[in-house]
C-alpha cells in the first residue's frame, strides 16, 4: 500500500527553495481529511467532476529532469479546481515516494504518492513472488533492489551480485567491477536458483544483463550455470524452450524510445527487449517464441491498474458516496509518446465504461511533422494547452490562465 504524505506548514513556507531531501523531511503520513485538503487547498469542492486526467511525466511535465514550462500552472489549477488527476508513467527505478518527492520539488507542487503509477508499480501487488528468489535487472546501482524490497520482496538478487561472485560469467565488464562492488551483495552460491526475472528499469550494462537472462532462460529450473535437456526438443511446445520451470520473465516498460536531454530520442527498455528477442531468435534457431510478460503503457493491464487507482483516489478525495454518485465518464490521457500514451488510451477498454481520450503534446518524443502510426483525439503544444483544451470540451466554468 502506498504511503500518503501531506505537506507540513514548513513546506508551504519554503516550497520554492526545497531540495528533494528537504522536501522529504517535510513529509509526514496523513489521514483522509488532510489528503482532501492537500488536493483541494482551502476551498471545499463545489462539485464532483465527471472527468479526470492522467498525465505522463517525461516529455509532458519534465524533459529529462527539467520542468516543462507551464506544467506547474496546469497542475496547480487542477488542484485548486478540485479536478482529480493521476500520474501514469513508464518511468521507474525509484520507489514511488522518492519519485513523488523529486517531482514535487521540481514542479513546486505538493503531490500525493497514492496517485503515482510507475511502470513497475504493478509488481508491488504480486504477492506470490515475495518469498521467491528473484533477479532484479536495470536501474542505477542497487536502487531497483531497494524498490523491490520496499514492495515486500524478501530474496532479491541483482546481476551485480552474480557478477562479483563469478566475473568469468561475462568477460567484457571487467572495467565495471569497482562500480558493481559499491552495491553488490555477496551470494551464498555463485550459481543461485532464480524463480523470476523482473526488469524494473533500463539496463545499464546490456551485455551482462542480456547474457544472464539468456543463461537463465536456457537453464534447468532456473539454476544458473545449467542447461535444460529439454531445449530444442521438437516434440515439446515452443521446441522445448522455456518448458523446464525456467524463471518467468517480466518487463516493466515497453517503450522503444524516450525523450532525454539529447536532441534525438534515446533507446529505452523496449530497445533492450528487442535486442533480447533478436538474440533469442538466433539462439533458438527461430523455432521458439520468447515467453514474457510486458507491463506499462500501452498495455491494458497497466491502464486497468491506473484506472483503479484513479477511482480509489477519487473516492478518497470526495467520499465514496459522492464519487459514485457522479460516475467518472471521461479520462484525458496527456502524453508525448504516440506508441505508449496515445495507443494505450485509444485502445483501452475500461471495465467500468469510462471513456479515455488521448491528448498528444509536442514537448517530448513526438515532434511536429513526425509521422503518426496512431491518431490522438487531439494534438496540442504542451500540457498547459492540453488541460485548457479538455476544460473547454467539458465547458468548465473557470478559465486556465497564464
Ligand atoms: Mg513520456
From TrEMBL:
Transmembrane segments: none annotated. Pfam families: Hydrolase_6, Hydrolase_like. Gene3D superfamilies: HAD superfamily/HAD-like. It comes from the Eukaryota. InterPro entries: CDP-alcohol_PTase-I, HAD-like_sf, HAD-SF_hydro_IIA, HAD-SF_hydro_IIA_CECR5, HAD_sf. This is HAD-like domain-containing protein.
